[in-house]
Amino acid sequence: MKRFIVTTVFTLTYGFVFAQTKPNTEKAKDTIKTEVVEVVTSYAPKVTDAFKIKRKPVIELSKKVQRKPLDYKIKSVPVISTYIPKSGVLKGIDIGDRERLFNNYVALGFGNNTTPFVEGYFHSNSRFEYEYGGKINFISSTEPVANTRLNSSYYNASVDLFLKQEMRYYDWSAGFKAYRNKYNYYGLPENINFIDPIVNSIDPSQTHKFYNIFGAVHFPDRDLQEIKGSIAYFSDTYESDELHADIDALFEFPLGRFGLNLDDLKLATSINFINGGFTRTYNDPLVETNYGFATAGINPSYSFSFKKFDIKLGGKAYYSFDLENTEGKFFAYPDIEINYPIIKRFANIYGGITGDLEVNSYQNFTSRNPYVSPTLNITQSSEAFNAYGGFRGILSGNINYDLKAGFKKEEDKALFLANPSNSNGTTNSFPSGVFFRGYDYGNSFGIVYDDVNTIYFSGGITYDYSRHLNLGMNLEFNNFDLRNQAEAWNLPQLKSDVFATYKEKDWYASANLYFVGPRKGTTYISGSPSAIDLDAYIDLNLDGGYHFNDLFSVFLRANNITNSNYQTFNNFNAQGIQVLGGIIYKFDALF
């Protein structure tokens, strides 16, 4: 019992002692290191923090992107108005009714001397797509020239088509032109007595046929600005033919790209090829004649302003190779012009010296004189230099004028000279037995060349009387000095024309009065040429019409109202009075 008591006391004492003992509170070692966290905010700059530029930078731009000064020119036109200044009142300006424009029209007409007339035009375009259009024209006349023993009828038919498109970096265009013109060599010389059987055997008809395909590409932001080409074929009734091809390119080099304050340098280049031939010469029906030239040209020019002067400095150079005679020749010409405003807009003085090479062609000669024979001698003409000066400007805001005088020297200038008759009035064949053709009876023209020096004066003035009425006049005087020929055949010393146009809402009219001074023609007496006088003449033409509405109009045209019996060329009388009237229909939708 005593042992139990001792054991119990010992156990209670041990439990009490250990119950009062402090427990072990030591923590485990921490392995996390102390770090500094930086919070970054957006930067708020201050003016004082800016870095100052020590020197001004120089920025050089290309000529194609530099700003150019804008020069606005306003052409004043007097406007009829009842405006009276009054405080607080504003009155509108009468600008009239705006004319409605159409994409297409058709015109049909008929005139005296059995003259039918047809003309049509169509046009279509939409943004970023193709634009195309065309024009057709036909007119003819039956026996329009009185008192001629040969047929004087004619007709002209033509078609002109185009197609173009604007692209992102360039634009292009292409087209086709063609015409077919029929004439008659009706101008028999009066000093030869042609018997009726001979006259009845003459077929004076001649038909000119022309076909032309052309195209161009334009690059607005390139050194190569434009390139264009053309190929044409021309022929006639007598198996004459001519092939003509051109390639032209225009470059603009911005000299400012080299750090210089300079304008663009322009460079025009050209390659021209022409080849043609005739089945016979005028005097020998058994001999053919051919011609051909290949010509390359270059025309650099630089335009700039100095003080108040506008100056163009340039030159032209050509190398031409004669394909028939296998020889080449070099040509060079100046190309300079200077303009100075004495009184800006109102009086500007200008002058220059230039020259050029003209590539003559059968097609070009027939467009100037349809009665040339298909037996021509084709060569080139050179305008060695042309020095000129003049004044131009505006008076009173509605009068424009241009006065010009100069001197030019031309080498191998082409002149139209009447051919002698191969018939004496009773024969119709050569001694070889080859029959004459319709142009062999002194009723056609040949070409002669001569060196010609010309002193000339020309002037023009236009007067805008009102928004409805415009008047004007042109005048040209030439004094010819020839080296070999006796006269400047068929060239007048004095030419002038006076014109007026009137237009209002429903009516329109225009008038042209032409004056051509005396000229020199040729007649042949016993085979020897002799100069004759061709009288001066006046030709008055009127054109007018009335608009019934936006769609329908009528027109009336009258030519040679004075009914003058003048000669445009030696032995070729002009038509008398010609009156043609018709109707015009305008519309938008082509299909």
What does this structure look like?
With 591 residues, the protein is mainly β. The protein has a single domain (104-587), classed as Maltoporin, Chain A (Beta Barrel). It has three helices and 26 strands. Strand 7 and strand 8 form a beta hairpin. The longest helix has 18 residues, at 2-19. The chain is globular and about 80 Å long.
| Major sheet attributes | 22 strands, antiparallel, barrel
**Approximate helicity band:** under 10%
The domain count comes to 1
Query: Can you tell me the residue ranges where pLDDT is under 50 for at least 5 consecutive residues?
Result: 1-27, 74-93
Number of helices: 3
- C-alpha-based Rg, rounded: 42 Å
pLDDT average, as an integer? Answer: 86
CATH architecture: Beta Barrel
Name of the top-level CATH class: Mainly Beta
Query: What is the 3D shape?
Result: globular
> In percent, how much strand structure appears in the residues?
over 45%
Span between termini = 139 Å
